[in-house]
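Lab meeting prep.
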Amino acid sequence: MALQGISVVELSGLAPGPFCAMVLADFGARVVRVDRPGSRYDVSRLGRGKRSLVLDLKQPRGAAVLRRLCERSDVLLEPFRRGVMEKLQLGPEILQRENPRLIYARLSGFGQSGSFSRLAGHDINYLALSGVLSKIGRSGENPYAPLNLLADFAGGGLMCALGIIMALFDRTRTGKGQVIDANMVEGAAYLSSFLWKTQKSSLWEAPRGQNMLDGGAPFYTTYRTADGEFMAVGAIEPQFYELLIKGLGELILLKIQQETVSCQARQTLLSVKQWPSLQPKSWGFVWL
């Protein structure tokens, strides 16, 4: 396993931190999760491959045990807002003085600097501030609050795991640890680099929900089927679109007024102005 021999101390928190530590454990790291007194179980259900112990970090004895753990560990992962660890006398200045090779990973919502750094939040708040939320949703409707995957897990947990891996690699050359400031706002914004880099292209020239990749195109969206379920259609390329038309047969042929599957018919269907009229609310077939 790639991370065999790497030891990680995870301070328990909500989903992003446990997911980050689980990724490290999945690839061979020895992860010890430090739970708070009174914790009965792993709320996030992401404890695979970890061991755990209970420490009261607000008490000198508990803080001392954590410091001893960090003296012989490679990574500390903490999920708190700015200033919490420093208040407990467990900040990076202290722990890295005792173990210069320690990688001190801080995973928070808004980061360790700025006016939001001491505030609490959730996935939807981080997505809104990153700008990504403004791009998700149907035309004429409010932006959708998606599952808490984009900011919490992708922009937070996974990006933090990547930072830890890069810090471990850098340590092989420098012999020193470092502080990682991973946060879900900047992580989600970074994940959406393609979106912002192509903002002025034809991909996103229409309002939300009216573009090719956000549900505006009849060949790249979802439909309810006759059995009450749903199907996803993603037939952007000409050859795949032609297969879709042929596969649906008479149903779609009626929709395009019995036109043959030709280049001319496809160009008609790809006309942006005609997309709304080509999206029935449901298609009368069963998706098997």
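Slide two material, second protein:
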Amino acid sequence: MGLAPAVARYLVYFQYVGTDFNGVAAVRGVQRAVGVQNYLEEAAKRLNSVEPVKFTLSSRTDAGVHALSNAAHLDVQRRQNKPPFPPEILVKALNTHLRHPGIRVLQAFRVPSDFHARYAATSRTYMYRLVTGCACHHHLPVFERNLCWALPADRLDVAAMQDAAQHLLGTHDFRSFQSAGSPAPCSIRTLRHISVSPGLASPFVLSQESRKLQFWTLEFESQSFLYRQVRRMTAVLVAVGLGALKPAHVKEILDSRDPLGKHQARVAPAQGLFLKSVIYGDLGHPSKRSSLLHPTGPTVWKLTVTLDVQPGLCWSSCWTSLYSLHSALELQCPSQPLLPFGPYYPVSAPQELAQDKKDRCDTPAAFGAAALEYPASLSGTGS
């Protein structure tokens, strides 16, 4: 009696325009509403797995909310003892059979059998887009109407919004910003980053309108968020920007721990919200790729890249340099896609810290030796 075919677990990144969906989660039963997960699992049926493929989502988003990069894990068990799909073949197969143009699978990676897309995530970042100078929603270009919140104002007091945002940074009980129906047993969260800044000009705005419309971007980063926490924080910060609230009111709302209060009951519209990224520590994510382990792949060797990161240097330029190197190596070995880019170690002691990943530095500062692993079929040495 032959052995059962091996089950391969994958981490898959995907994006979607949320306008047509009742959220990302699958809608079961005979309802006419449908989630992004429904389409993904329908496409996965064509993989002909022994057991039906189920997507375990990293982050749930509501109806109308978009994702630049969400994530999920799935198990595939091929028939007739066939070897697991290479990740790039899995991506191609899913995209080929997806039946909605608003969904795209970005990348896939083999992960250990005990990996969990929701619980293993170490960071999630959401982005919210606003636009001022628009008297009503119908004055927006049609291409932008489902991608931002049009405010009936010519300007925002951004400085006041930034002051107010500082009250939300750090570890707090965010019960005041939690909507009813949240399954979370604890409302304490740590908001690591929050910003309010001018957004990029929309390419869909006509030249005669461009002087009137100003786009703004709010970003929030934490390991996890409460139900509708980002949209409720956004609504309060917008109220500060419009002069309806003072920055000090935000602290009062936070300290009240009352989700039914007068001001915190506001919820920003879904269409302006985007899940920007999900990060998995050592496993990273598509835009910051690295490879510190390949659980089921070939023998690997380590290439250490050292950057002399000077104070004041734009951190994104460091990512760009390392990403370019990573992409060049991928071209040399297309059959073995590299895992995402991950942790960095201080230049002063990369080897010591590499032996204890718990002590790695995860904040963008003046450091930069990166440990990467690549398939043994690559030739040459790294330094």
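Talking points for slide two:
Confidence is low (pLDDT under 50) at residues 284-383.
The CA atoms of residues 89 and 259 lie 46 Å apart.
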